[in-house]
Design goal:
Layout: E1 5-9, E2 18-21, E3 36-41, E4 44-54, E5 65-66, E6 69-70, H1 79-91, H2 96-103, H3 106-109, E7 120-124, H4 139-149, E8 155-156, H5 167-175, E9 179-183, H6 184-189, H7 205-218, E10 230-236, H8 242-255, E11 259-263, H9 271-280, E12 285-288, H10 294-305, E13 311-314, E14 326-332, H11 349-360, E15 363-368, H12 373-380, E16 385-389, E17 400-405, E18 411-412, E19 415-416, H13 417-428, E20 432-436, E21 445-448, E22 465-467, E23 472-474, E24 481-482, E25 496-499, H14 503-513, E26 519-522, H15 532-541, E27 547-550, E28 563-568, H16 582-594, E29 605-610, H17 616-624, H18 626-639, E30 647-655, H19 658-679, E31 684-697, E32 700-709, H20 712-727, E33 736-741
Parallel strand pairs: 2-5, 10-15, 10-16, 11-13, 11-14, 12-13, 14-15, 17-29, 20-27, 20-28, 26-27, 28-29
Antiparallel strand pairs: 1-2, 1-4, 3-4, 3-6, 7-8, 7-9, 18-19, 21-25, 22-23, 23-24, 30-32, 30-33, 31-32
Bound molecules: adenosine-5'-diphosphate (ADP) and zinc ion (2 copies).
One zinc ion is lined by residues 448, 450-451, 453, 488, 490-491, 493.
């Protein structure tokens, strides 16, 4: 076959490229790596990306198909982002096509043009003001006037949804002659706006020291070159003002004419924090949140790629947003588990962000009150520079910790009497109280009082959770539901009791106990409606004394100035977790939840209920704080050569019968052993296969094989030659299997 061959990455789980000849009429100079093409595949057409251009193909010429058309004239992604995607695919041992699917907005995957929709701006006319009589009965139009008021040079049409505006509203205003359209070119000739909408806070001594280091490495504010790779770990206790450091570092980046990318954890999207970015800067801020539709997401992506957006904020997948002039990456709450995708392409956005900063030669700022052991290890090795904020900003002081020994004490809905008493005192002083429970629902178990039978999920090795409104049993692992049993299926007894307490039960008890104060529950069940969280946050912000009962959702990022007591109902789970990360997780969670207390003028108190008040981990945590735990745990990991002192990958398999998953892993294990021998890979240990901690989930049996290596490069060499063999394995189609590089969950 003569003529160029396109090797195309297609959305397919297979780790390979597919060969096509160039579309009819395409000249060699029209072809580029990174360009999208439409190709025939089976009896349909797919959109793929050209990964390589070659002169030859192993496919015999009569079988080689011709690509239908080139979708892009130029490569879709900037060169560095293309490199980032290919690196990600290789690092996580995932197909390039599928990796690109994770990285690109849906519409681009479907072949939509990657061009801004219109180069059109909306601007207020001179006669427009928010109290204009023509909009007195039109709240949306009034809101639009307020939003456009913040953009004296016009708001790009592509960005209107970011401000909650619709085209219809703007067109109505246009007819009333309060709004006009102008063209983009006009925009560029206008006077530059001042960068800041409001003055920064005066940094305190520690913030100033941290900023001095960052700004120094970022270089002078007027230079045009990216300033080189630098990684900082900003370790700041909760409430120490990390966000202010981010804002001032971003200001510097914007003054260099560059863009900032800010990654936040999934439930960290607090409207308060986001508002602080918009409030501070006049540049367009785009927020990639789950409420965007596909078109809005693509618009935001294009605004970032073309350099129109100054600040891009988003969760995990935003790490793949192309930037015209990258200057700074920030990863807030870098320890957060939501940066790790747990299915498909199992990537860690924080780690990719660090690699990206390296590639694009920018600074990266990782912030947390409870840094991951991985990042602390990188500080020890000199890869990251540590910046510390040890004091709370403003006048806030750190909360006081106290463990409440609940051995042989009576509990009502999981709450001990001294705890309820303490809550009463805080409430009567006009303060708010936060109760943290790590389980939603009414009770984690339904038990027969006569014979001890427990309601279990029919599809998982797990117990059903009792929910009360509406009343049903719910499996939190596979989401199956059924009615609450009325009779014990084993002994026919009728005395079935919910055992233990979840958020619903604590709420019920507290509402009946504190009749003078509202009790607000915040968990996935009460927050499923779109505006629920915002409504709730407004209520909390009003400062009225109340009880907040909630799960992890309450633990992250929020600033509750009137909460003075935080109660942690059950700290014991993490003390005997099977996962080697258990203690780290528990210490992070307790510290984060506790960090919600006393964040303003009022001092805070933290009460931790436990059956193990003498446990060294709890003592260390309450007396010496997270840093002490982190140090201990790092030493323990080093002693047992666990990550970050070694490198692991987890091969998981699941099947309808347990034996099949096991057999697949047994044979995979033998293949790996042979590869290690024949290729001389040393320092590799294969542990397993073993059944997963929850062997049966959603009706499938699960098993796993752990691969541990002393050197990352050796681990990757093994995976690289092993996985293609696994794809060809005779059982590969009967079991569902996956590889997880740097797994964070061991089940
Ligand atoms: P963190 O993200 O570290 O938990 P925040 O950035 O949310 O902390 O800051 C906590 C509070 O302290 C916020 O209300 C913030 O406005 C305030 N704050 C931060 N820095 C300063 C400062 N330099 N002076 C006064 N108040 C500050
Ligand atoms: Zn029974
Ligand atoms: Zn289940």
């Amino acid at each position: 076959m003569s003529g160029p061959i396109l090797q195309v990455a297609l959305p397919s789980p297979l780790r390979r490229l597919f060969d096509y000849s160039a579309p009819t009429g395409a000249r060699v100079e029209d072809l580029h790596v990174g360009q999208r093409v439409r190709v025939p595949f089976g009896n349909r057409q797919l959109v793929g990306v050209v990964a390589r251009i070659s002169d030859t193909s192993e496919v015999p010429s009569e079988k080689l198909k011709r690509a239908v058309e080139l979708i892009d004239l130029e490569p879709l992604l900037p060169e560095t982002l293309w490199q980032l995607c290919t690196w990600t695919a290789a690092y996580y041992q995932h197909g390039l096509g599928d990796t690109l699917s994770s990285a690109l907005p849906v519409l681009l995957r479907q072949g939509e043009a990657a061009l801004a929709r219109q180069d059109m701006l909306w601007q207020l006319t001179t006669g427009a003001y928010a109290e204009h009589p023509a909009v007195s009965r039109a709240p949306k139009q009034k809101q639009a006037i307020l939003a456009l008021g913040k953009h004296p040079h016009g708001l790009s049409h592509a960005l209107i949804s970011q401000w909650g505006l619709s085209r219809d509203t703007l067109e109505l205003l246009e007819r009333k002659k309060l709004v006009q359209r102008i063209s983009q070119s006009h925009h560029h000739t206008s006077e530059p706006l001042p960068l800041l909408r409001e003055a920064p806070l005066t940094a305190n001594i520690e913030q100033a020291a941290a900023l001095a280091q960052i700004l120094q490495s970022m270089g002078a504010s007027d230079k045009s070159e990216a300033s080189g790779f630098n990684a900082w770990l900003l370790e700041g206790v909760t409430g120490s003002g990390k966000t202010e450091v981010y804002l001032q570092a971003i200001e510097h980046c914007l003054r260099q004419g560059r863009q900032a990318l800010v990654l936040i954890p999934e439930i960290g999207l607090t409207p308060q924090t986001l508002e602080r970015f918009r409030q501070r800067f006049t540049v367009p801020v785009v927020i990639l949140h789950s409420g965007l539709n596909d078109r809005e997401r693509l618009d935001a992506w294009i605004a970032a790629r073309d350099g129109e957006a100054g600040i891009i904020i988003g969760t995990r997948s935003a790490v793949f947003t192309p930037l015209a002039r990258p200057g700074l990456i920030i990863v807030d709450e870098e320890h957060d588990l939501s940066y790790k995708q747990q299915e498909g392409l199992r990537y860690n956005a924080r780690d990719i962000a660090v690699y990206r900063a390296n590639l694009e030669k920018t600074g990266i700022l990782l912030g947390s009150a409870t840094p991951s052991l991985e990042s602390l290890h990188n500080v020890q090795r000199g890869r990251y520079q540590r910046l510390s904020l040890t004091q709370r900003a403003g006048n806030a002081s750190p909360p006081r910790f106290q463990c409440l020994d609940i051995r042989s004490r009576p509990l009502d809905a999981g709450l001990s009497r001294p705890l309820v008493q303490a809550m009463g005192e805080h409430l009567r002083q006009g303060n708010q109280v936060l109760v943290f429970i790590n389980r939603r629902g009414f009770a984690p178990t339904l038990m027969c009082h006569d014979c001890g039978w427990i309601a279990e999920c029919k599809r998982c090795d797990a117990r059903m959770t009792v929910h009360q409104s509406p009343a049903h049993l719910h499996c939190h692992h596979c989401a199956s539901q059924r009615a609450i049993d009325r009779k014990c299926p084993k002994c026919n007894g009728e005395d079935l009791r919910p055992l233990g307490a979840g958020t619903e039960r604590a709420e019920e008890y507290l509402a009946s106990h504190f009749t003078d104060f509202p009790v607000l529950r915040i968990d996935r069940d009460t927050m499923s409606r779109k505006q629920a969280m915002q409504t709730m946050l407004r209520r909390i912000q009003s400062g009225e004394p109340c009880v907040l009962v909630g799960t992890q959702m309450l633990a992250k990022g929020h600033h509750f100035p009137d909460v003075t007591l935080v109660a942690i109902l059950d700290a014991d789970g993490g003390l005997f977790s099977a996962d080697f990360r258990g203690p780290e997780r528990m210490a992070q969670l307790i510290t984060q939840v506790a960090g919600r207390a006393g964040r303003a003028e009022k001092p805070g108190q933290v009460l931790i209920q436990t059956h193990m008040a003498e446990h060294p981990l709890l003592i260390d945590l309450t007396e010496h704080g997270y840093a002490a735990i982190a140090e201990r745990e790092l030493a323990a990991r080093q002693a047992s050569q666990l990550p970050p002192y070694s490198f692991i990958a987890l091969l998981r398999a699941e099947a309808n019968v347990a034996a099949l998953a096991n057999q697949f892993l047994e044979e995979a294990c033998e293949q790996a052993e042979q590869l290690c021998e024949s290729s001389g890979f040393t320092g590799i240990e294969l542990l397993g296969p073993v059944p997963s901690p929850m062997e049966r989930r959603a009706g499938r049996f699960r098993a796993q094989l752990l691969i541990q290596a002393g050197q990352r490069s050796v681990l990757h060499q093994l995976l690289h030659s092993w996985l293609p063999q696994l794809e060809q394995h005779h059982l590969a189609r009967k079991v569902r299997w996956s590889i997880d590089v740097d797994p964070l969950d061991m089940f």
